[in-house]
User: Fold this.
Amino acid sequence: MASAPSLFIDNEHLSIATDLYQITMMAGYWALQPDRQATFELFARRLPANRGCLIIAGIEQAIHYLTNLKFAEEDIAFLKKQPALANTNEKFFDYLRNFTFSADVFAVPEGTPIFPDEPIVRVTGSIIEAQLVESYLLSVINAQTLIASKAARIVEAANGKPVFEFGLRRAHGPQAAIYACRAAYIAGFAGTSNVLAAKLLNVPVVGTMAHAWVMASEGEEEALHEFRKLYPQATLLIDTYNTENGAALACRTGEKLSGVRIDSGDLYQSSINVRQILDEAGQATTKIHASGDLNEVLIADLEKIRAAFDFYAVGTELMVSKDSPSLNIVYKLVSVTDNNGRWHPVAKKSFGKRTIGGAKQVHRKLDASGRFSGDIISLDDENIAESRKLLQQIISNGKLCQKLPSLDEIRQYCAKSRQELGSEFFITGADYPKYSVELSPHLKNLQNQVLEAI
Assistant:
């Protein structure tokens, strides 16, 4: 009996990790206008509810995709069988056999706070290949940006206390869990419970114990004692039956108890009671961990009323960004060549989905104190004095053209960028300040011309 496919995407099959209409449009461009060049931009139409900005993540995985694109013979054979491609010239499939990505790609650095309409990724090259990459780029950048943006709020709510990612079991599959771990770490999480993610990403891995260990034992005291005998530095789970009693039993397992975890009940009152029990038992250095359906709102409330927690662990609410589980990041054509090779800006005019034509750059301005003071979206070739250009070239003619930062470097950059933007953009339960994003005069004029011509 043949084994079932693994459903994991390897480099050999990256090119067909896309929507069918991308392939049919490729075939159409190849047949009618194979030499046409185009620029596409990936951007957010709007911010989701309860977000002051987005934290961009997933660029590294996008680069891996773009620099490893090829069509395997078995995938070409599969495409040839599809009714939508039944009338396609055989030479198009020869084109796919020799396909390599050869476009230029600009992107904002991972960890950058970004706002609506600001280009995140810009792809310029053959319209055939620039069209192909839409679906995958959106998938990988939407997913990680969603989690990084949520994670930044949780980190802010924790008020400097470490937060760990415990969400593997609630993720939309094990691959999604690895992406989420990476995005959360970029935004400031301290580590993960996910062993594979920790290995692949070289981030700290942590864990405590399950209620099952206690329930499978003769008694709670024996369970805690035996677990600590096996793992002297373990954090013990104390709320299987009664949290305060569990804390007292944990204190009997020996001196210098590393930590205890509370996963249910009145977290505030339990933390105060447990802290008192630990201190009176000579366990003043023991750390108290909180878990159990936590999110940024609950953590902020616990911090506001001075709960006695030292660490937080967040799973479900982070993994699925429960309060706002999707983003409206899109990938749109902004400029294209005509039959004479001349570039023309293009834009959508449809209600609620209007786009800004022309290849663009984002300039970020800083005030005297080093804080971000506003952004200007301009034409790509404009220079704006005393500003940072956010879009940087990362691929030239299909090849990586700069060294990628390490995950820790991205994390440090993100922390610095969040500080430069200001914590008020991540605070829960607040009206976010208005961040200035303007179009340059030249871009405004061009946009008016493009829309009038449609």
Summary: The mean pLDDT is 96. The longest strand covers residues 329-337. Residues 310 and 444 are 51 Å apart (CA to CA). Residues 134-157 form the longest helix (24 residues).
